[in-house]
Specification:
Elements lengths: L1 H35 L18 E7 L6 H9 L8 E8 L5 H5 L5 E6 L5 H10 L5 E5 L4 E2 L3 H9 L4 E11 L6 H23 L9 E5 L13 H11 L3 E13 L4 H21 L13 H12 L2 H18 L3 H25 L5 H25 L13
Parallel strand pairs: 1-2, 1-4, 2-3, 6-8
Antiparallel strand pairs: 4-7, 5-8, 6-7
Length: 395
């Protein structure tokens, strides 16, 4: 009986710490840190634009002809001197009119691979053609704010920073689009954690919607990486450099068209997370990486590996304990669990009917994310040697 209770409380603490406790702890640590080490002002960009570093804006794309005109219009709005900017599109085995359309833009440097090898391989192909000091990666279907490149360069001027992660913002095309709205809420919380991670020491990875690397410290991610952006950024951290996070450079994209499409993303992310944990396992050594292991385990490793199993185990453990012992505490916890899962069920049913209720779709989306970790395990088993993956349709 004691063993069951110990297991139950370990699982409960793991779930709480992973999704809420780490954020609370970060907030407290930063409050204390700022008392003794006030935050310094951001660096100031040089007034002479010719002193700005050269930047390549790289877009790796597969069959993106529908968004090319909108993306190019967005790129032309970016506030960075044309003499210091290279716009590079890397089309990875595209079979539509992408190459034809891109050749119409004089400012575009087109790099084409006739065989589709995956995004990581496309990045490597493009980087072999790069001549700039800083490379900014973004997706074809994401739109950047006008100041994004200048803000990224400003962040690169901070000591020890060799990678910058911008903010991902998710928009819904219409009210009640659960996939987009659930993803949007998740990313708001995730963005706050990234900012706090960055303020403490370093953000734990970057998302492909918008991030940049200093080529002097770039390291090539494995070509079969399912999370190429995460691996590329974390290899920089592994070498002793930092990832700065900034919400003043952001990429806006529409959320997935529906929960089925969102599941494609989540299972790939979960699979890529497990793959990355193994490749980056040395970061969990506190003697080798004393500044990183706490953040890496708390923010990434737990949620991609142990915690979903702990969440699943809470239900049977709670039931078994109640069957063996009548306890007010465990009865209350069981009731709370039942209410939570009932709310998630309600959120799922409302999503099926196209209706919206924030109180219900938050628990639904939370369970949805954790369920896809299990799908991700199966996904990883079938994608060990390939970095290609099926795109999720956007709303």
């Amino acid at each position: 009986m004691l063993a069951l209770k110990v297991a139950f409380w370990i699982c409960l603490i793991l779930v709480f710490y992973t999704y809420l406790g780490y954020g609370i702890l970060l907030w407290l640590i930063l409050r204390i840190k700022r008392v003794f080490h006030p935050m310094k002002c951001d660096p100031v960009l040089p007034l002479d634009e010719e002193q700005l570093p050269t930047v390549t804006l790289m877009i790796c794309a597969y069959n993106e002809e529908e968004v090319i005109p909108e993306k190019m219009e967005n790129i032309r709005q970016l506030q960075y001197p044309a003499s210091r900017l290279c716009v590079m599109w890397v089309t990875d085995g595209s079979t539509d009119r992408s190459n034809e359309l891109l050749r119409q833009y004089e400012e575009v440097k087109l790099v084409f691979s006739p065989e589709r090898k995956g995004k990581a391989a496309a990045m490597q192909h493009g980087l072999r053609e790069n001549r700039s000091e800083i490379v900014v990666f973004t997706d074809a279907n994401t739109m950047l704010n006008a100041e994004a490149l200048r803000e990224i360069v400003r962040q690169m001027m901070k000591p020890g920073v060799s990678c910058v992660s911008g903010e991902k913002r998710v928009a819904a095309r219409h009210e009640g689009q659960v996939a987009a709205e659930g993803e949007g809420l998740y990313w708001k919380y995730e963005s706050k954690l990234k900012q706090w991670d960055s303020d403490l020491y370093s953000a734990m990875g970057a998302a492909g919607e918008l991030f940049a690397v200093r080529m002097e410290h770039y390291r090539e991610a494995p070509s079969n990486a399912l999370l190429d952006d995460f691996m590329m950024s974390m290899l920089i951290v592994k070498d002793g450099h930092r990832i700065a996070y900034t919400s003043r450079a952001y990429a806006m994209e529409y959320g997935s068209a529906d929960m089925h499409e969102e599941s494609k993303r989540k299972r790939r992310i979960a699979a890529g997370g497990l793959q990355s944990i193994w490749w980056l396992r040395s970061l969990m050594n506190p003697f080798k990486h004393p500044k990183v292991f706490f953040q890496f385990i708390s923010h990434r490793v737990l949620r991609w590996s142990i915690t979903p199993f702990a969440l699943l185990a809470l239900i049977p453990l709670n039931i078994i304990i109640l069957m063996m012992e009548c306890s007010t505490l465990y009865t209350v916890i069981a009731v709370l669990q039942a209410l939570f899962y009932a709310a998630a069920l309600g959120g799922w049913l409302m999503a099926l009917s196209g209706r919206k209720n924030k109180l219900l779709y938050i628990p639904y989306y939370f369970l949805f994310m954790n369920l896809n970790v299990f799908y991700g395990i199966r996904y990883l088993a079938s994608h060990r040697t390939s970095g290609t993956w099926e795109k999720a349709k956007r709303g």
